Amino acid sequence: MTLTSPPAGRRERNKQAKLERIIAAASELFADRGVDEVTTQQIADAADIGTGTLFLYARTKGELLMLVQNAHYARALEEGRSAAEATSGAAAGVLALVAPIVECNRVQIENGRTYLREMLFGDAGEPHHAEALRIVAETEQSLTALMASRADLSEEEAEVLARVISSVLFVTMAAAASPDTGVSDILTAVRAQVEAILGR
Question: Deepest in the core among 34, 68, 176, 192, taking most CB within 10 A?
């Protein structure tokens, strides 16, 4: 006997449709103008909802940015995992895994830096913040598995190094405020630190 989920009711479909409109509107406005230049009223207008409704989905502009960016970062992590599988060696695998994350972070530089700031200092009780931390944890799990299998490390050693590399990645991205600093510059800096960490 196969169990299937019942179709979503009208209320749930309406909520999902509003969420999709909010994400689309915020994504476009943030990409065009940057998070600091966009108001919640502009997002609500573009999504064709009231501001009160908007705040049911995200209470602050920072949470709206996290809502939008979390989806991009989750896709970037999946791309990185696939790319890492096509490499050999621990350092090459790490760089392949994190490269799409760096690219995602640099699409709109101030948005990327604001996202990292919100992730570190935002309200941990907010659901979009929790989702961002879940993506970070998944990234660290992927780094752990990669290094345990390729760098002759125990699971515990690989887990510690994964956290170190994750920290290196986020600090390097957050510090790169200049638009002249490209993805390749950040990856070069990360590569040097990863190779030093791995001793190769």
Answer: 68
